[in-house]
Structure formats: structure tokens, C-alpha cells
Amino acid sequence: MVSLRWGCVSHTSERNPDHQLLLPKDSERINRSTVIAKDSLDNAPDLGVCAYRGLTLRTVFQPIFSIAHRRAVGYEALVRSEDSDGEPFPIDKLFALPESSEESLQLDRLCRRLHIQNFSRHDTTDEWLFINLNSQCLETEKPHVGFMDSLFSVSGIKPHRVVIEILESEIKDRVYLKQLVEHFKAMGCLLAIDDFGAGHSNFDRVWEIEPDIVKIDRCLIKHASENPTIKRVLSGMISLIHETGCLVIVEGVETKKEALTAIEAQADMLQGFYFAMPSGAIECNKAVATTLDRLIQVQTRQVRKSTIALDQHFKRFRMLFNQAIELFKAQGNMKDCANIIFSEKRAVRYFLLDAKGYQMGATIHARKYEKGFAQQLAPLLSGENASWSHKHYHYRALNHPDKLQVTRPYLSVTGKHMCVTVSKTVEVEGQFFVLCCDLDWQDR
């Protein structure tokens, strides 16, 4: 995949390929302030560089790897610049050189032409090229977009191999954003939302733009690898993005731990220094397949180990819970079960539901947890006559009366903590009830 950044564009229409770098009305002014080697790409095909204000610009490509396929399925095109002494020139300073939106457009178009022509020289098959667009500039200028058509025609790169990355938070004009998206979709390009999870990212834009790919920002994977709560948020976010029909790329992966976190969160693709640095050459890196195989094996072992530990933990509690059920069936008093249930240190509360899901009586809390209940949540602490019929722990217990049910960790509505609920159907004198117990599930 190819990724381009689209900078500012003037309203002048593009009539032929000769106008791809310099618009006629701007040529005189730009020749005074900017040195652009218009034919440098054609005259130096082996170098693949061009000049801009005394700087040399070149393309580097960073691979994007599919976890399942264990190989690069796309490349993001990035610009690098050097001064006259061959020293690296900071990219942020490069894009700060233009003094107007029109000059920014010229630089942006120069970079796009450079990237696409350099990509076309490599021996690729069906990999994508990811190209970033300068959304702020586009919104300001609202240009004619025929420039990309010309690039595709000259380079021979098919639109369906190009992924246009949009930093959606930069475009405030939703009408223009929709027009822009529709244009690229009509051309056959794929669309990606970039840096999702950073700044003011909003799911509304995912539903509105309907991209093919969403790229998760580095800040999120970094924090997710360090914080179990954020790790769950990442998994939920990726699951929700998948529900919208989009693929997910986690970018900025720099450590093994971050890679494992992204794999566990069910990302589709990975990008970052841990797998490959940006390079001017596009080469098959067979070592990545081995790396991904090992990561998947490690993640599989971790899941298996966690599952075994969980099974062992619930093996003991299952015995306690069944004892409590037998005691309740024999004596019919919920409070008599407290000593048995609360011998499990993580037991926070237990309660009884009828067959319709309504809570019968008050919730019985463990004393050590009562002290930690937030007073702000007092309206939610009393569960008497509450309806839990929509909860998994109720209807699954009724559907499988002989089996102990255990939910996934979730935020308890009656407290500021994560918990899992254990439940099982109880039959007393021909009536069915569901006994439930919440276990504290703080991240370890």
C-alpha cells in the first residue's frame, strides 16, 4: 500500500502532466523562492531524488506487516531531506519552509510525485502504497484533485494499490471531507484514518467516512502495553472498529511487549521500528515471518497459561460455590452462605435472582469491601428488586442449569472496580433461581 500526504492545492485546474509540479500562475513566484528540479525524477531514475530550496528530498518506505500472512502487505512512503552538506534536515522544519498554503501545496505535490515514482521503480506485486494527505491544507484550498489522476497515469500505479491516509481531526468542514472521501473511493483508492486514538479522534468520523483501514496511534499501544486497563480499552476499540467493517493497523510498535499487546488485541496489521526501519529499498524480509511466528507462539502460551491459572482458581471457588448452593437449598436463608462464599478473598458480594431476572432481597457484601465503596455510587449499591435479566450471568445460567457460568471481566455498576460474576441455577421446591457472586478482578 502507498501512503501520501496531500498538502495545500490551488483552485487552478490541472490540464496535463506538465503541470504536476508547478501551476502556471505560481511558476514565477516559486522559481524565485524555491528550487525545484522539475525533471530530476525523469533524468535521474537511479537516484530517485529531487531538489527543494537547496535540500535533497528522497523517499523511504516503512513496511506494514499482516500478522496472519507474516509478510509485508504494504509500505508507507515517507520523505527524508538532506542539506547541501549531506546532513539530515528535520522533517518538521522542511514542512515549515513554505510561506503560504500554495507553496505548501507545491512541496506536498513534489513529495507525492517523488513517492509514487520511486514506488513504481520497485519490483512489487500487489502490495499497497500508503500516502498521507495534509488535510489542513486541503480544507483551506479545496483544490481540484486531478493531480492524483495524472500521477497514476504517468507512474503506472493502479489506484486500487494506493491507500490514502487522512488525519480526520484536521478537517472541520464535514461536507468537504465527504466530497474528498467520495472522490478517492470513486477513483478506486482505499482510505485509512490515521493516528486514531490520539487527540480528538471520534468514532463518528469512522461511521461517516467508512474507511477501509483505521491506523491506531502509537500513544495508545504504548500505554496499553503498560496498563492492563488501557489494554482492555484497546481490545474493545479494535473490536468496535472491526464491527464497522474496517481493518486495523497498530502503528509505532517499538518493543516486543507492544507487539504482543497488539496481537492479543486482535489487530490485523503491525507497523513500527520493532519490525523494520524506514528504508529507501523495498526488499523481502523473510526474518519477519520468523519473528511473527515466535510472537504468536508466545502470545498463545500466555493465553494458555492464563487459562490454566484461571481454571485452577475457579476449581476451588466452584467447590465453595456449590457448597453455598447446597446450604441455601437446605435452609433457604441467603445469609447462611456468607461464611462459605466470603472464605474466597476476592468475593465482593452475592445476591439471588428469580427466573425472570429480578433480584430477591438485598445484596450481601463482604465487610472488607464495604469500606471501599464509593459514597458517590450509593444510589446503585442497593440491588433489591433490580432487573438483571439482560445480563449473561442470568440467562446463560438458566439455559445451562447444571453448569457454573463465569463472565468476562467488566465494570460493576455497583462499584468502581472490575469484576467477574459467577452464577448457577438453583432449584428450590420446584422454583428456579440464579445465585450470583461478584469476584474482585483488579488487574495484576
The name of the CATH superfamily of the largest domain reads EAL domain
CATH topology tier name of the largest domain: TIM Barrel
Approximately how much helix is present in the residues? 25-40%
Number of strands: 16
Task: Give the second-level CATH assignment, the architecture of the largest domain.
Answer: Alpha-Beta Barrel
Cα shape: elongated
Distance between the termini: 39 Å
Largest sheet: 8 strands, mixed, barrel
Structural class: alpha/beta
User: Which CATH C-level class of the largest domain is it?
Assistant: Alpha Beta
Beta content comes to 15-25%
Number of continuous helical runs: 16
Radius of gyration: 29 Å
- Mean pLDDT across the residues is 83
Textual characterization of the structure:
The protein is α/β, with parallel strands linked by helices and 444 residues long. It has two domains: 17-285, Alpha-Beta Barrel (TIM Barrel); 318-440, PAS domain (Beta-Lactamase), CATH 3.30.450.20. It has 16 helices and 16 strands. The strands form two sheets. Strands 2-3-5-6-7-8-9-10 form an eight-stranded mixed beta barrel, surrounded by four helices. Strands 11, 12, 13, 14, 15 and 16 form a six-stranded antiparallel β-sheet that branches. Strand 3 (71-82) and strand 4 form a beta hairpin. The relative contact order is 0.09. Residues 1-46 have low confidence and may be disordered.
Q: Could you give a quick summary of the protein structure above?
A:
By secondary structure, the chain is of the alpha/beta class.
Secondary structure elements and pairings:
Blueprint: H1 27-33, H2 40-43, E1 49-52, E2 55-66, E3 71-82, E4 88-89, H3 91-94, H4 101-121, E5 128-133, H5 135-141, H6 146-155, E6 162-166, H7 174-187, E7 190-196, H8 203-209, E8 213-216, H9 218-224, H10 228-243, E9 247-250, H11 256-264, E10 269-270, H12 287-331, H13 338-341, E11 347-354, E12 364-365, H14 367-370, H15 378-381, H16 392-399, E13 405-406, E14 410-411, E15 418-428, E16 431-440
Parallel strand pairs: 3-5, 5-6, 6-7, 7-8, 8-9, 9-10
Antiparallel strand pairs: 1-2, 2-3, 2-10, 3-4, 11-12, 11-16, 13-15, 14-15, 15-16
Helix pairs in contact: 4-6, 9-10, 11-12
